[in-house]
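Lecture 7 notes: from sequence to structure.
We start with the chain below.
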Amino acid sequence: MQEPVSSEPTEPEPEATRRDADVVESSRANRGWWDRNADEYQTEHGTFLGDDRFVWGPEGLDEVEAELLGPPEDLEGRDVLEIGAGAAQCSRWLAAQGARPVALDISHRQLQHALRIGGTVPLVCADAGALPFADASFDLACSAYGALPFVADPRLVLREVHRVLRPGGRLVFSVTHPIRWAFPDEPGPEGLTVSASYFDRTPYVEQDEEGRAVYVEHHRTLGDRVRDVVSSGFRLVDLVEPEWPSWNTSEWGGWSPLRGALLPGTAIFVCVRD
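Predicted structure tokens for the same chain:
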């Protein structure tokens, strides 16, 4: 039996390339991408992330065990800003510890999923490079793969976070481990062979037929990330590279047990505002 042919036009697949993309183009492209793909993202990864769990990356490192923001009992009464919060799963966990989190994301649709899940965490739709908060508003800031991999100049975000943190405040953020940029983004054996220069900082861009970026991701080397942190006024106190645990048999894009046993997939920066 012949399948019916859909009369609805299909969107052409974007072209993947490496080219420059500035702050404005990156922000516009990624706001649109996350709005369009939030539903699929939450459907695919929602179970792994949970509704009120704080996971730092695809390896499954949980803040309950890592305590990168400090012991859970010390979070009570703390004002916390989550950047790139998505559906605010991490913020819900923070609220359960007695903290006062605010969940910020550039994507309105991602925050609609936060409303769908529920809870009392305040939600803010804004660009991380221009935080709508007064100076010294927060004790802690965190970001699990939020904002920083997608911005053209991460120092804009880091300086904004430095501004809204109180002296002694802590920022912890996770990003794709920089070494991954030298390898294809594939979970199988093809993802184990170097295919590009680690030192090529040209952004990864997906663009439409007219050359407009619809998704942008930016590469910084490990040294770049450290210099970004320090030049923005922070002191780096730890750099965590989670190992892939034996219990985690799932694949997430280019992350997999095969690659995780051989290559770091996530880098977590623990910083203090003196």
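Points to note: The first helix runs from residue 23 to 49. The chain has a mean pLDDT of 95.
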